[in-house]
Amino acid sequence: MNDDPGSATSAPFLHEKAPAADPIDLSSGQILEPLPEIARAAVRRMLDSPRVAAYAPGTGATELRSAVAHHYRLRTGTAVDAEHITITAGGRHGLFAAIAAVARDGEILVPAPYWSHYPTVVQLAGATAVAVPGDPEHGLLVDPERLDAARTRRTRAVLVNSPVNPSGAGYDEERMRSLRGWAADRDIRLIIDDIYWAYGPDVDNRVQPGPHEVVIGGASKVYALAGLRVGWVWADPRLTAEVREIVEHTTGPVSGPAQAAAAAVLRHENDAVGTSAATGDGVARRAAELATQRAVALEAMSAVPYLKPLPAAGGIYLCLDASQALARRLLGADDDQQLCRALRREAGVGLRAGSTFGMPGHLRLCVAEPHDVLRTAARRLTSCLTAAAELSLTTVGEA
Ligand code: PMP
User: Fold this and answer.
1) pLDDT of residue 220
2) Where exactly are the structural domains of the chain?
3) Quick one: pLDDT at residue 204?
């Protein structure tokens, strides 16, 4: 699933050009920040505790589950029982466990474009992913008609991610209401991948587990703690029991120090909600920074010839339509994977190929980078593609 930067088909005419010595990697999706002092202090306390090397509680540390429950309480305005939260090894293991519990031996509708890992996570969880093309007129999002067209007797669930990785489009309350109504009428479960919840204008604050909904969250993106590997599943009691069984027999408990750090950060964020600290610290600051980074990336990439950025309302990515570059076979590329490899090699800019996201002919970049890095990447792409276009014109002219 991951792009392999190593095995590009070489474009011979560019060989004498050395790849950039300092590659800019915009291919992954993480927000890099130092661990805040409150989290470091929590880890230090854990290290000094006699239980540091013991198994953490199987369902997750009580203080972390309480902090997650409190987060959803603040967001939804409803009572949330920490007993319905299960801590997992990152959001992706939460997805795995929920999918295995809900849809093993059945089908899951996956709106396209989608996070590149979904097809494999679904497959490993014993289900079959059925891609549902999003509506080009509406941000490539799906609606009940599109879901109905893909539904079969084996459909158990729909995997809804908002804002969407990679497009950044979000399901607003009205769209979510129609999906929820559709799912309830057909006894199908929405698996809500809530990992980017704060990063866009269309925050879904109606998330609520029940017979037709389960919520997957995590500390990686919104709390910038990807390396800690802390995620969770918020589910109704029956599904929670099944999810816990799967977690117990696959990863077991998540590392205690990682949970302590995540709990400290979530508690801090929960306490800041509704106070002036909420805008200066953590989640709100990151959301504001990302909005600016999306705008900077959009402006910078708009100047790159043969690639056309698709404005993103939210999320941490920007997609580029590469159809013009591909139509001209720039850098000898016949598809987005080849173009991606060639741009990494020739321009020193690492992107991700859209075909791995169900979006062939596109490239994806992560915007969670300093503005000058985004602008330098755009300049490199411009000079590389301009040179490639000139060469291809010369080659065509000579032929
Ligand atoms: N869902 C989506 C849409 C993602 O993009 C990611 C990570 N890129 C995850 C889930 C999983 O995040 P993690 O396992 O790091 O918590």
Assistant:
1) 97
2) 24-29+282-398, 37-276
3) 87
Atom of ligand 1 minimally distant from the CA of 115: 3
Q: Calculate how far, in angstroms, residue 231's C-alpha sits from the geometric centre of ligand 1.
A: 9
Q: What is the pTM of this model?
A: 0.92
Looking at residue 281, its pLDDT comes to: 72
CB 27 within 8 A of CB 366: yes
Homologous superfamily of domain range 24-29+282-398:
Aspartate Aminotransferase, domain 1 (3.90.1150.10)
Rounded distance between C-alpha atoms, residue 324 and residue 389, angstroms: 11
> Which pLDDT value is given to residue 22?
86
Indicate which residue's Cα is closest to atom 12 of ligand 1: 91
pLDDT of residue 14: 43
Q: Which CATH architecture best describes the domain 37-276? A: 3-Layer(aba) Sandwich (3.40)
Ligand 1 atom 4, closest CA:
115
Residues of the chain with pLDDT under 50: 1-18, 397-399
Q: From the CA of 220, how far away is ligand 1's center (Å)?
A: 7
Q: How far apart are the first and last CA of the chain?
A: 38
What does the pLDDT read at residue 392?
Answer: 79
Mutation choice for ligand 1 from 171, 195, 196, 319, CB with most ligand atoms inside 8 A: 195
Q: Is 261 in the pocket of ligand 1 (CB under 6 A)?
A: no
For ligand 1, the distance from its centroid to the CA atom of residue 96, given in whole angstroms, is: 11
What are the Cα distances from residue 229, in Å, to 154, 223, 341, 391?
A: 32, 12, 29, 46
Please state, in angstroms and rounded to a whole number, the distance separating the CA atoms of residues 369 and 297: 9
